[in-house]
Predict the 3D structure of the following.
Amino acid sequence: MRHTVELTEMGGSDEGPRVLLLPGLGARGSGFRELALRLTEVARPVLVEYPEGRHAACGARALAEQVLRVTGKVDAVVASSFGGMVAAHLAAGGATRGVAFLGSFTRTAQVGPRGRIIAMMGPIAVVGRPGRIAASLAAWRPVASHQVADVVPTTTLERLTTLRRAFSIHAEPPPPDLRPLNVSCLCIQGDRDVLVPPSSLERLAASLPEGTPRHLLRGAGHVPYFSHPEECARLLTPWLQALAPAGLAGLAGLAAALESEAGSAA
């Protein structure tokens, strides 16, 4: 049982931004591993595992507070599904300078009719006992047996935690719109997402800063970071490079300029 937020530091570029990878309601942060490995060239990825148990029965705002206590402020957050609500609270509180939303949302209304019954994901997790079929449907491709737990809740404790957290979502105010804030955002959506439909993308973008880039991945389902890590890494890389800590980015630019001048002099 995890009583607090647990982190797995993946290493990476010393000059890159520190980026949290936040899973959805019943998924594990370990599902981000393949994407995280690809991002180590430009960033310092951190896998996040949420707490489990009765004390974890909290909505996105309380969960964001728990994450912040453990991680402190970071340069960027990459969030999946319900993790987008957690990320939005972090951004609204000034805890991060950028958020990438992957098959995600900041308010349940953005998901359309499904958003009204999102609490039912809890009973489904307990009664339905999702397994390989559910994981494959979420990923929109076959998921190996040993990877199922990265995508859907498989243990009794994970299912009960998902149940409690799902019922807590509507018990607290939703995150504020990020549109007026100085936060860099990016949206990536799978065109085969059966849980957060592609139509959610425009509603999400309307709550984000004007000009936020939007990308629709062909053949990707609800967990594009898991099923399409290479494509996600390609889209995230320039965004993360722009979020490198100002001091380090400035030094890198200065070094490049000096190198260029040295080459011209020679």
The radius of gyration is 18 Å. The first strand starts at residue 6 and ends at 9.
